[in-house]
Amino acid sequence: MRTLYHNWLSPHARKVRVVLGEKKLDFELEVEKTWERREAFLRLNPAGEVPVLVETSGATFSGGQVICEYLNETVTEPPLMGFNPIERAEVRRLCHWFDDKFEREVVQNLVGEKVMKRFLGLGSPDSTAIRAGKTNINHHLAYISYLVERRTWLAGDAFSLADVTAGAHLSCVDYLGDVPWTNHPLAKDWYARIKSRPSFRTLLHDHIPGVPPPKHYSDLDF
After folding, report:
1. CA distance linking residue 63 with residue 11, whole number of Å
2. CA angle (25 as vertex; 23, 29 as ends), nearest 5
3. Is the CB of residue 87 less than 8 Å from the CB of residue 93?
4. Rounded distance between C-alpha atoms, residue 172 and residue 13, angstroms
5. Domain 85-198 belongs to what topology?
6. pLDDT band at 76 (very low <50, low <70, confident <90, very high)
7. Spatial contact of 81 and 72, defined as CB atoms under 8 Å apart
8. Which residues contact 204 (CB under 8 A, 6 or more apart)?
9. What is the distance between the alpha carbons of residues 41 and 47, in angstroms, rounded to a whole number?
């Protein structure tokens, strides 16, 4: 069976888990403590980062976007990248937005400071970074609201990898209770639709040792 190496609050690993669920593919999860720099894992991905997908054939793929596009090409239903070059470009643009801009401005400042620093032994959280993350997330939620006010889903009429990517990143921040949903009702309604998908529910059962989620985290009617 294929194996996905991940850790709980990696948004890139989470997006792969959702895509595997959307494609109805069986897989095993292996938690990888990347900070331990395990030699066997480094042989799979010299960058030492999750996610890494190992197929039953032994073929190995690393990087969230790379893995998701590979899965979309090899298992065509349901399609997650759009139906023409323009749609695919928009999906990729939004994937890059959340994998790069949102991660840098929000995830690193909140999840990185509050959780990952503890695992990495890098000292106390930086309160300035946390404040920046809490400010920045409002701009991203406003952009999500702008998009879904004009479209059915983020990239257009069809659910796509753009929604998966955004939802995966937000789920990491939501695990800490740091998403101001009440200030952004359109974004909240969109996320509720994401949470209700069977492929997404496995993320809602994650419990990180020593870091319990807020009560609303797994609530579909939050």
Report:
1. 11
2. 120
3. no
4. 11
5. Glutathione S-transferase Yfyf (Class Pi); Chain A, domain 2 (1.20.1050)
6. very high
7. yes
8. 171, 195, 217, 218
9. 10
Which residue do the tokens 């999906």 mark?
A: 91
pLDDT digit string, tens, across residues 196-219 = 999 999 999 998 888 899 999 999
Q: How far, in Å, CA of 95 to CA of 78, rounded?
A: 18
For residue 133, name the pLDDT band (cuts at 50, 70, 90): very high
Q: How many CB atoms lie within 10 A of CB 219?
A: 11
Tens digit of each residue's pLDDT (9 = 90 or more) over 92-103: 999 999 999 999
Token couple for 217: 């985290």
- pLDDT of 36 higher than 90: yes
For the chain, the domains span 3-74, 85-198
Buried/exposed code over 85-108 (b: 16+ C-beta within 10 A; e: otherwise): eebbebbbebbebbbeebbebbbe
- Mean pLDDT across 17-45: 96
For domain 3-74, is the CATH number 3.40.30.10?
yes
Band the pLDDT of 118: cuts 50, 70, 90.
Answer: confident
**CA-only gyration radius of the chain, Å:** 17
List the structure tokens of 59. Answer: 């073929």
Q: How far apart are the C-alpha atoms of 59 and 65, rounded to whole Å?
A: 16
